Amino acid sequence: MKIVIIGNGIGGITAARNIRKQSDHEILVISAESDYFFSRTALMYVYMGQMKFEHTQPYENWFWEKNRISLLNAYVKSVDFEKQTLHTANGQKISYDKLIIATGSVPKKIGLSGEGLKGVQSLYSKQDLELLEQNSGDVKEAVIVGGGLIGIELAEMLRSRNIKVSILSRENAYWNSVLPQEEAQMISRHIAEHHINLIANTELGKILDDGSGSVKGIITKKGAEIPCQLLLISIGVQPNINFLKNSALAINKGVLVNEFLETNITNVYALGDCAEFENPKLLHPPIEQLWYTAQMQGEALANTICGHRQTYRRGVWFNSAKFLDIEYQTYGCMFKQPLADEETFYWEHSSGRKAFRANFEKESGALRGFNFLGIRFNHPVANRWISEKRNIGLCIAELKKGVFDAEFSKQHHRKIADEFFRQFPAYAKTQKTNKLKFWM
Amino acid sequence: MKLVKNIGLAVFLCCFAIFLCLPFMGTYRLTSQQFESVVSDSAHRAALAPNMQAMFDKSYANNFNFLADYGQALDKTNQQFKDKEAWVKVIHTDYALPLAKISARGFVKEHIQTLFYICFIISSLGGLIYFIADLFLQKKGDTQHKQVFKSGITNRGISAIVFAVFLIAFYILLYQAPAYLSNWVLMVDPLSIKLTGSQASQWFLYGFMYCLVMLVMGLKMLIKHRHSNYQLVRTVSVIFFQVAFAFMIPNILTLLQLPSADLKNIWPLDYTFFFDYHLNDLLSAGLLGYWMLGWGIFLIVVGVPVMVYFFGKRWYCSWVCGCGGLAETFGDPFRHLSDKSIKSWKIERYLVHGVLLFAVVMTVAVLYTFFTGSSTLLGINTYGIRQVYAFAIGFIFAGAVGTGFYPLMGNRVWCRFGCPLAAYLGIVQRFKSRYRITTNGGQCISCGNCSTYCEMGIDVRAYAQRGENIIRASCVGCGICAEVCPRGVLKLENGPENNRFENQLNLIRAKNEV
């Protein structure tokens, strides 16, 4: 059986590797972006001179041949689902028995005139990074539109070259659409410490042309003019499925899939950023644009294709990021506002660089999730506690069990516990008294 | 602050330039009295003197001509012995360095104190200013290594190659022709006399420079990692052991005319530990000598396995060891240059265990000779083996390649490919230890920072992205992988042995119904 995978990102490659682990099917991975799988998350480090591009490739080049995973650098123009054939931009025809669509995303456009000017771009692909390298040559000032995960990484990248950076954010603080107010405020302060100008409650109004086809500045919707020679659009991404439009494949924003990652056409599957769940689970988004979810989907789909048909189940939600120098880890479904049946507890270190939040069910005290800023926490421990619906009092009392900071680090679990039991004395009773042994 | 930083650098570079010029400076004149005071062996004196008559009271413009003439005189003398087949009389003692030192005249000799301050003290201060400026320029908590691959010196540029050539040349001269460095040795004579009661050898100079470099570059580490207690404690520890145990204590023991010993140096890294002259030294030094012998054996037999069991080999390699100390301070800017390929891992395993085997065989042979008095074992000359080991491993591998290749192959070339003690520690760490680097569930994003900055060339990411803990013989526990990880995925820790290999991904994946 010949399995063709379009896209060599984490989703497609995880599927390919896991199919190979379980079977001898012929596997072909097609990508127009790069010859070999690389970690998109590391592109920023290449720009900052912390890594070379080759370091972003998790497997050495011999790996693919040894594991009989064929790679093809080509752009798939269209798919003939009836004849089970792909057409590439250079006229090649490739047949398949099973097709996995793992084409990822493309950056969202703002839809203003001037988006085609030189110096206006987004950052998603390897090609975008190369373009940014060209575009940021003698830039003094840059504006980033969008205060999200990519926005802050872009700001960090440009600051490493001493470019003056402004971020336009729709919200009143950094990533406030996802982060609760306190966390968003803390990160906003940290952004200011790094001499990045975060302009809140502001949207892009107009892009200014310098007369020679390059960007020379922007005007916000409020009418303020900001000069810049580089304008970066990072307002999110959308599924990269243009080449599938007007075909028999059912698509909405992304390729529509069921919980088995199957599309409406037999033997055609989709996963990762480009897939959209027809019936997303409660509280879950229909499109999951995360490294981790693509990885898990790849594992699940490999099982299905190799004859162990199984649903994709994400398990307890988790995610992480790094905001300049502050690491962020989140476990469980942590919303901007606690849900109606939830209570929330927030603790912030006096340095303003570390914070902790726990949400739990009001009635039962069952743990719903954690946010950590500047504190590392053990994933399996958080996962177990949340899935067990463990009592928050117990969790707080035993927080030390999950602390994942480096040895000799200053620990904060006691202060957090003191503050928690001061605010929620009712839970003090549930504390276990058996102490951890010192060597644990 | 930027200006201050650059001033510091300029001061250092000026001092360093002067330092580099010194071996080419000064004039030389040897008197027969000086000759007699240096060549203490009367037979040597009698044999050498006739051939050196022309050198006495002759002025030399530099030490190259002086050493060339001395070399000729020595060769001539030895040739005469060889012609007569008087093999035992051939002179092997190195008089070149003390002769060069004693006959030095002119600028260097007259300004020895001033030059000492310029070359060692002011240059160090320059370096310190350069790094202290980072306290203000580099944010606390910045764990990144920005621009590392954009700067020639840290990315195998021309400057890196020049620097490597300098280091290699330094090691070759140090081991093979120290007389050319006589002016450098002269500078540390006053200090040596204060500390040890005798004139400096090239090894005193080396030990002194080693400590100085570790102190200055160690301060850089402390500033760079001031947010991380692990790095702070580790760096202070490694500097302390170098300065106190490798430098001060042996020198003070020498001053007290006791057997000198680096009490933290363990066989087989300390490959001369079981050499006959060393054993005789210890056995003839009374209680202290016996204690030193016992301590050395205790470290090999009990110290290493017990400590590695509880803490991993890091207790030695990145907390105590002098080679590791230099690598972690002076070598830190080059850590990312280590090769991460599977191929180099294969080479590493053959090489490092090969050297361990070589060290064991060599030591067995040497001990055989010590106990039986017979100098051949299985038809092989035991002195021959140990000479080969000293030259190939002690000088070429540990010195010239181990440190000289810092700017080209990373800072742990010796520790990774050559150190027999690391091999021994590694075997224990791999099979019987509580130490591991724990991977945090499914949080890895395969970015590759950990692998890039692993000085031992471990492909950390290969484990982390599969949810596997990193349990590798070579890991020295420097902790940098955990620090550069942008997602908090890695943690060095000691824990129960039974779940060491547990897959962390299995712990968090939702159980799928088939």
UniProtKB/TrEMBL annotation, chain A:
Positions of transmembrane segments: none
Key words of the record: FAD, Flavoprotein
Gene3D superfamilies per the UniProt record, alphabetical: FAD/NAD(P)-binding domain
GO molecular function: oxidoreductase activity
Cofactor(s) this protein requires: FAD
Residue ranges occupied by any FAD/NAD(P)-binding domain in the UniProt entry: 1-298
Domain of life, source organism: Bacteria
Record flagged with keyword Metal-binding: no
Record family assignment: Belongs to the FAD-dependent oxidoreductase family.
PANTHER family on file: NITRITE REDUCTASE [NAD(P)H] (PTHR43429:SF3), PYRIDINE NUCLEOTIDE-DISULFIDE OXIDOREDUCTASE DOMAIN-CONTAINING (PTHR43429)
Protein's name in the database: NADH dehydrogenase
Source species: Pelobium manganitolerans
Native organism taxonomy: Bacteria, Pseudomonadati, Bacteroidota, Sphingobacteriia, Sphingobacteriales
UniProtKB/TrEMBL annotation, chain B:
UniProt-listed SUPFAM superfamilies: 4Fe-4S ferredoxins
Record's GO cellular component terms: plasma membrane
Lineage: Bacteria, Pseudomonadati, Bacteroidota, Sphingobacteriia, Sphingobacteriales
Pfam families for this protein: Fer4_5 (PF12801), Fer4_9 (PF13187)
Record-given protein name: FeS-binding protein
UniProt entry tagged with the keyword Transport: yes
Gene3D superfamilies according to UniProt: 3.30.70.20
Superkingdom classification of source: Bacteria
